[in-house]
Amino acid sequence: MLRRASIADTAAYGDMPRRSERRRRSLLFPPLEALIMKLLRFVLFFGAVLALAWATRPAPTAAAIHAMETIVAASGLDEDLEAIGYNSHRGEFLVIWQVREGANSDLYGRRAVMTPAFAWLGQAFVIANSSRAERNAAVAYNSNDGDFLVVYEYEWNANDIDLRGQRVAGWAGGGDSGPSLDLKGGPFGIAESLSIERSPDVAHFHAGQNFLVVYTVENATESDVFARRVARRGLGDGGGELIGSVFPIAADFQRSEKEPTVITVSQQGYFLVAYAYAFGSGDFDILGQRVHGTPQPGSQLLNPAFDIAFSETSETEPDLAYSPSRQAVLAAWTSSSGGDSDVWGAWLDERILSGSALIGASFTLAADPVAVERGVVVDVDPTRADSAPAALLTRQANAGAGERLGVLWLDPNPLAGVRILEPLYLFPERPFTFQQPVLKVCHGKPGMLAGYSARFGVSPNTQDDAHLLPTTRWNVLLPLIRRGS
User: Fold this and answer.
1) Pairing of strands 68-73, 481-483
2) Alpha carbon distance 174, 181 (integer Å)
3) Per residue in 324-343, pLDDT tens?
4) Which residues sit opposite 207 in a β-bridge?
5) Distance, CA of 346 to CA of 364 (rounded, Å)
6) DSSP state of 33
């Protein structure tokens, strides 16, 4: 017997089209939660793919450098490259080298330009050539007057070495002394005690209108770091060349301090000196000391010294480069332990005037576990915020390998997670060892002037020549080309 549909049955059957419609709509328009889950799964999958690609990426390779190797001097005597100054107003370099013959040595200079390519300007000229040995020069450009100050060692005898200064005109023939009018005035004494003063460095502060010369004073048992200010020409005490007296940077009578280097932190109005400090026997640390940018009636030091590098290895050979736009200073040094040495760096905050100025931890620039890396020098274009600091160093792959010169670039951001922007590029191996790397970066345009002393032969029968590696485009994939002077 047929059962008559109830009101409830009729209602249920009558609702079927509406339920099917909702199901159809749910298939066409999924709920929001389902969309979110699908999106999350896609993001996780895509992230995993990226992570795998990053983990299996090839190691970065250094861009080859097109550099015209130029022989500065190769006369048959020993010539050692000493320093490179940069005239920021004219975009010109002053290249300084030492010529040694027996026990005597003299200093020479020559101007050069990098635009559009490297070229010498004029001929070489004498900076210092008395009957005594003059050597180990440093140079700073005086932006107040457009000239250079060259400071150097002047040897009376083996136990008495003084420091002297000589002003050099900012352009050829712009001076008032010397055979070619390349000098301004004559030599003058900077540090003239009965001790041994050596290893000078110098920086100029435009707003303070003075130079700071730093150097090491040695005696029989230890060494200290001292400084003296040099004025603009004729504007020192009593119309002379100097301002005030010699003053100590670091003079712990129980410890040795050595290898000072100095830069100007112009935005904060002070000089920054870095030096190696003997923390223990064979264990040196790198310390920093701020010095007032202008002469003070009392102490010339701006607050106590602070640590820059202080690991259990021995840190020596410090160098500094200043980036005004980043408000930071790059410090670099050699870290040695046993027979191995690596090159490390750290950023310093220029705005911190007391205590440690370190920005984060120190980091490696070149630290192959087998190779020996050392002798680092750094520089940066102070006119551009995006200028990558450059570091020049020497590297020996192992005990039996030849030494090679290398250059790398750092990220200009002190807070960058990856410190190295362009990894170490090694110039071709040469039949000599590299002594005293020198580096100067162009201002406002790409390019740099690197240099070194090439030492041929084996001690005691060696021969030194001064070489340059100028480059206007560091990232052009071209081979190293050699040319004569």
Assistant:
1) parallel
2) 6
3) 999 999 999 999 998 899 99
4) none
5) 9
6) H
Categorize the per-residue pLDDT at 31 as very low, low, confident or very high, splitting at 50, 70 and 90.
low
Strands (E), 338-471: 340-349, 358-366, 372-379, 390-396, 403-410, 420-426, 433-441, 448-458, 461-471
Q: pLDDT tens digits, residue range 183-242?
A: 999 999 999 998 999 999 999 999 999 999 999 999 888 999 999 999 999 999 999 999
Phi-psi region of 235 (alpha: psi -120 to 50; beta: other; left: phi over 0): alpha
What HEC string does 232-268 produce?
A: CCCCCHHHCCEEEEEEEEECCCCCCEEEEEEEEECCC
At 158 the pLDDT is: 86
| Distance (Å, whole) CA 310 – CA 315 | 7
| Pair 187, 239: CB distance under 8 Å | no
Residue 258 is encoded by which pair of tokens?
A: 């050595």
Q: Is 56 helix (H, G, I), strand (E, B) or coil?
A: coil
CB atoms within 10 A of CB 456: 13
Q: The tokens of 309 are what?
A: 């590098």
CB crowding 264-290: b at 16 or more within 10 Å, else e: bbbebebbbbbbbbbbeeebbbbbbbb
Omega cis (within 30) before 428: no
What is the average pLDDT score of the chain?
86
| Closest to 96 (Cα-Cα) out of 84, 78, 104 | 84
Length of the chain: 485
Q: Which helix (H) or strand (E) holds 216?
A: strand 210-218
Alpha-carbon span 299 to 286, nearest angstrom: 22
User: Hey, what are 292's tokens?
Assistant: 């007032």
Domains, the chain, ordered by start: 78-378 (2.120.10.10)
Nearest 5 degrees, angle CA 129-CA 133-CA 139?
Answer: 70
Which H/E stretch holds residue 21?
helix 7-28
Compute φ and ψ for 338, nearest 5 degrees.
Answer: 65, -130
Instruction: State the Cα–Cα distance between residues 21 and 308, nearest whole angstrom.
Output: 74
pLDDT of residue 18: 41
